[in-house]
Design goal:
The chain has 93 residues and is α+β, with helices and mostly antiparallel strands. The protein is built from three helices and five strands. The protein is globular and about 35 Å long.
Length: 93
């Protein structure tokens, strides 16, 4: 079972980041969440075993059919695809 890494911070609801370990935009998204001190969980999909990788990508496609990264899911209601700094900063409010 794939494990998400939890980062402590201010609870603004459920914030889940699907990312690639080699993606600069994914790193920027993580850095911004860290800077904002927001609690979130993340997973690097490219580091998963084949079966888990496929399963997690299927989950991502429900929100983001192109399965591009970073993909941020907020409270199982909203999806932010890509590094959209202004939208990510809105989470702090």
């Amino acid at each position: 079972m794939a494990e998400f890494t939890r980062v402590e911070g201010k609870n603004v609801g459920s914030v889940v980041l699907y990312a690639l370990s080699t993606c600069i935009w994914c790193k920027k998204a993580r850095s911004l969440l860290d800077e904002l001190k927001i609690e979130y969980s993340y997973i690097y999909i490219d580091l998963l075993e084949s079966d888990e990788n496929t399963r997690i990508k299927d989950d991502v496609r429900k929100w983001n059919p192109l399965c591009s990264f970073p993909t941020l899911i907020i409270n199982n209601e909203k999806c932010i695809v890509g590094f959209k700094e202004d939208e990510i900063r809105e989470l702090k409010k």
